[in-house]
Structure formats: C-alpha cells, structure tokens
Structures
1.
Amino acid sequence: MPTYDYECQQCGHTFEKFQSITDERLKKCPVCGKLRLKRLLGTGAGVIFKGSGFYQTDYRSSAYKQAARADGASSTTHSSKTSSGKDKAAASA
C-alpha cells in the first residue's frame, strides 16, 4: 500500500497517509477541519523486495547456473594458489 502526501489549502498543514490504492482521497483537514485537502504528487518510495527472491539469476536455466558455478569454482582455486606462501616465494625468486 502506498503512502500519500496531503496538503491543506486553507491552513497549509502537510502530512502523509498510508492508504490502499482503492481508498478514496481524504477531503477534510485533520487540523482545521476544512474540506480543502489536496493530494500531492510525489516520487514515493522505491519498491522494497524482502526475502530470498527477486534476483536476476533466480530464473536462469540450469545450464547457465552450472556454468556459473564452474566459473566461480575455478576462480576461487586460482586465487587460493596465488595466495599461498610457496607460490609467492617462487614468484619473487
């Protein structure tokens, strides 16, 4: 559900209201009681995805996932070889 910004055209009071999209606009100002509320256009908040989904790789083919795992495994073995003391000593000699 989105949050809407409202401003009273009579007293200038501004506030936010958490409403469903299907709810009617508010018309009465909670401060002065006049029927002069205007719903403001805003950028709103970004979409927030919670949980373990919604990643680009979630819907990839199984062949792509296997190739990505193989590529990741080969890069980690390469980096562990270069970080060992024996390889560093041989490289500097």
Note: The mean pLDDT is 76.
2.
Amino acid sequence: MECVYASMLLHKAGKEVNEANLKKVLEAAGAKVDEAQIKSIVASLDGVDIDKVIKEASVVPVAAAPVAAAPVAPDHGKSEAKKKEEEEKKAEEAAAGLSSLFG
C-alpha cells in the first residue's frame, strides 16, 4: 500500500514514477522497501493515465444494497431479474478492478 501512496505522491509532485524515485520516497518515509513490489507497481502503471484513473474512480457509483423485489410472474420475470443481477455484478466487478489498481 505504501508503494501506491508513494506513486501518487510522486505523480502529484510532477515527478516520474520509477523504481529509483519510489525507493527514495519509501526510504525517506521510513517504510520497508520491497523491491519486488516496487517493480510490480512501476510495471502496472506503465502507460496508465493516473489523472484519468483517479477521475474515473471518483465518479464510479457505489453499488446500493439490494432492495426486496416485488413478486413477478413465473413465466418471464426470472430472466429479467437475472439480467439485472448480472449487470449489477458486472458494475461491481468493474469498480473492484479499478480499485485494485490502487489497493
């Protein structure tokens, strides 16, 4: 997690997010330096527009708790409810994937 914070700090300061800079920030903060984690975060951020990701992450709606549905006819109601559940699940997975970039 410290690597993510260090990456965001470097980005905000207008510095390049690379292994050497991340290591310096972590050492200055007194955090444990994990070379493998540093390499992983640098590789993950290669080609990523951090400003765009942060903006999109702040716009992603939080999934609301499911509301009890009214009983539906047994002939076609199940397929519609199932489609809606799948769409909600896809939205949650997309939000989780985006948050994993920073987690």
Note: The chain has one domain: 2-101.
3.
Amino acid sequence: MIKYIKNTIIGGVLFLIPIMLLVIIVIKFISFLILLAKPLEKLIPLDSIGGIAVANILVVLLLVIICFLAGILSTGKIMTKIQNGIENKILKKLPAYPIIKGFMDGISTTKKASENFIPVLVSFDDSEQLCFEIEETSNNKVVVYVPGAPSPWSGTVLYIDKSRIKRLNISINEAVGNIQGLGLGSQNLIK
C-alpha cells in the first residue's frame, strides 16, 4: 500500500512538473511581452477597455508569431543537434526520462517511438504480462520494461529470452490505458 502511494505521488509529480514549468514560462513570457508593449502605450490608450483589448490582442499575436518562428528554428539542423545534445548529456541521466519520452513519443506516434517502445506480451511460468520491448540484445535476449499498475511510470527492466515475447498489434496509448485501467478491456487488446 505504501509503495502504491509512493509510486502514485511520484507519477503525479512527474506529470505536473512539465505542466507547471510551461505555465511559469508562459506567464513570464506574457509579462515580458507586456513590458515590450509599454512603448505602444502612447499610441494605444490602456486606460480604456478597448485599448486593453487591443493590447492583449497584440500580445497574443506577437506570442503566436514568436512561437511560429521558434517552430521553424527548431526544425533546423543546428537546433536538432542542440536538442539531441541536451537530451543525451542531461535528460537521459534522469531516472524516469526514457520512460516518459517513450510514452510521449508514442502519443505523437513517431516512427522512432514505435521502434523503441513496442507493446508486448511476456510469458512467465503460468502467466503473461503486458510490457514494452525496448531493444534486442545480440545474445537472443530482449530488454523489456515491465510497468507497474495502475501507474506505468514505475516498473522493472528485465532481460527475457526472445521466445517468451509476443509483439502486440496495439499502440503505446492503448497499452498505457490498459495498464492504468488495471487490465479492464484486455479482450480487445490481447488476442
């Protein structure tokens, strides 16, 4: 029971941290844009409701333009190299990062995620468990992440003989939903 509570709290923290960081960044960014808009105060009277509405529209428009430009910049070779460097040198050292990245990549259904986080059914002595194949080793073993239920954010890594692995034709989202639902609806996923 204590382990469940601890894992649930950790899962909640890992879920909330990116959201809180995003909220803080957006609040700071909007404050910065309002500061930039101060010189426009002479042109737009901010003491009226219409002036405030115009200023807010300009701030949102500027925010959209900056996000668009950042999106263009992020697809460039230099930014991709920087992102990969940060991920490989910093983020991958965080214990839960590979798991979270695998699930998040699964949400965006990238080809890389489907290659690196494959839902599988692992056969044990007289039972089977829904897991995620991470990679195959050269000695006919498969690296498998065994998620906990109902929180897939904590689990175990096992090295299983390839003959005990059955790949499932389901998405990462379906697998995670099944784990969080304590197996409810498995007849539709595991065939």
Note: The chain has two domains: 2-75, 97-188.
4.
Amino acid sequence: MGGTLFAALAAYSGCAAARLYLDRTGRREEDCLGGRVRLKSLWNEGAAFSLPIPAEVLPLASSAALALLWTRRRRCPLGTGLILGGGLSNLQERLTEGRVYDYIQFPRAPEPLDRYVFNLADLCVFTGGALCLWRERRGGKAAP
C-alpha cells in the first residue's frame, strides 16, 4: 500500500506544481522539444476527448471510479498510484474550479491525438493504465 500512496502523492503533487507554474495570465502558445510538444493553455469544462458526459456527472463518476480502483491497488501498485494521483488532481480541480486546466499538446502525434490538449494528470492516468495493462498481460502477481 505504501508504494501506491507514494506514487499517488507524487503524481498529485507534480500535477499541482505544474498547474501553478503554467497557469499564468497572458500565457501564449509555446513550442518545445523541436515542435514535438506545445504548451497551450486552456480550460476544459467537458470530459476527456470531448466525450458526451454531462459536467454535473463527472465528479461523481470520477469519485466512484477512483474508489473502485483503490480496491484493486495490489494488482499494480505503481500504476494504480499514478491513476489515483492524476485522477484526484483532476477531480479536485473540477470540484473547485468547475473545469480542468489543460496545457500540453502533441502536434506531431497521429491524428486525431494531435488536436487534443492534455495536462500532467491526464498523462499520469494514461501511463498508470498502460502500466497496469502491461502488468496484466505479463501475468503479474498480486502483492502480498
């Protein structure tokens, strides 16, 4: 359980620090890493990938998903921690701001991913999910 909590705390803290650093008024688009990454600030009031989920349902659905995920943390402690930290960061922001601050775009990614703007929390959730899927495919055993 310690590894899961540590990963969740690290992900949550990193997301909060990135948001504080990047959420500056007057910030314009900025290309980084030879145009592979673009910092593009925007507030997202909807669900990921513009899924048609009503805004008032998102916090409740997120809370339920995170609670369910916690019960399965022994199967993939690090991946679960990343998902929990990123998910809690987005949930906290949605509850306090009513929207989520996104700021990372990958303009050279394959379509349609090249048009979406993400945040560090989204990347933590994606990485944690990929890690858990990879562990399952490799036949990972549950922690004692």
Note: Strands lie at 30-32, 37-44, 100-105, 117-118.
